[in-house]
Amino acid sequence: MKLFIQLIMLCGLIMTSAHAENTPATEAKATATVKPSDALDRDSACTRCHDETENKPILSIYQTAHGNKADSRTPSCQSCHGESEKHLSSKSVSPDIIFGSKKGVFAPSDVKDQNTACLTCHDKDQKRTNWQGGAHQVADVACTSCHVSHTAHDKVRDKQTQPEVCFTCHKDQRAQVRKFSHHPIAEGKVACADCHNPHGSAGPKSLVKNTVTETCYTCHAEKRGPFLWEHQPVTEDCSNCHTPHGSNITPLLKSRAPFLCQECHDGPHQSDAPAAGNAAGIQGGLSPTLPNGNFSASENFTGRACMNCHSMVHGSNHPAGALLHR
């Protein structure tokens, strides 16, 4: 019995000690160690007012990477819009940074300030290395001119819908891609960003590679070579013959043969003056002159495509392909 009483007293002592550890003062001390800067807690200061009743979607940001609170890198509202302390105390004062290009309740912030807020996180991506000095940065294009962060579906990041965002400004290209011969952009198989880097590039026209030809080779690898017999315009620039966004002449040619070929090959096309690229290195051409010297139309030239004979126009590896015949 004595041993039983001692065990009961010992249990009571343990329970009293445990209760002391859970006193309000102790609980307050434990709560104080939790950081109040959690992104979701910071958002709550904004979402008390900015809820589903907004004209533009606000809460749908939680369906995007910017709202994924399971990721410690996820920003809060204040990470992008600034602390906005004056706005929190008075709705008549705008937040520190307003995104967009059109005036709503408040006028949008300067484009440089908007982009600086985005680049605070996104400047570490190698695709944005050449943003400074790029065509869009020089033209004062804001990130929000193309991207929408509060919507689950950002059109510019979807291959199917990206072109319609780009065509908002690039209207000439909108018309060109609807021509008879075109890259399958409207079909959703090719997007503008497959060839162009909108965030800046070391190459011309914001291309993803340093030259037009290198960019084309990313898809058209069979044209890369090296070839035993090369066609010089091909190695220089594909756009010497092709227009990339669309043409009414297949395949994306700037003009029809033989007129396209005549832009370079403007000499006689006869036995004593062979065409360019021959083994002897003689520069010839395609003007309709018969071997007898009469300036009448050649039956091998008029109304015919040069590629009927010179079929390997991009280059040949055949030992007898000096004239790009095979």
Structural class: mainly alpha
Uncertain runs are 13-37, 274-291
Assign an overall shape.
elongated
Strand order of the largest sheet: 1-2
Structure write-up:
The protein is mostly helical. Among the domains are: 126-217, no CATH class; 255-326, no CATH class. Helix content is 28%, strand content 1%. The chain has helices spanning 2-21, 24-32, 39-47, 77-81, 85-89, 111-122, 135-138, 162-166, 171-176, 212-217, 232-236, 259-262, and strands at 229-230, 315-316. A two-stranded antiparallel ribbon has the order 1-2. Residues 13-37 and 274-291 have low confidence and may be disordered.
Briefly summarize what is shown.
Helix content is 28%, strand content 1%.
Task: Output the keywords.
mainly alpha
Topology:
Elements: H1 2-21, H2 24-32, H3 39-47, H4 77-81, H5 85-89, H6 111-122, H7 135-138, H8 162-166, H9 171-176, H10 212-217, E1 229-230, H11 232-236, H12 259-262, E2 315-316
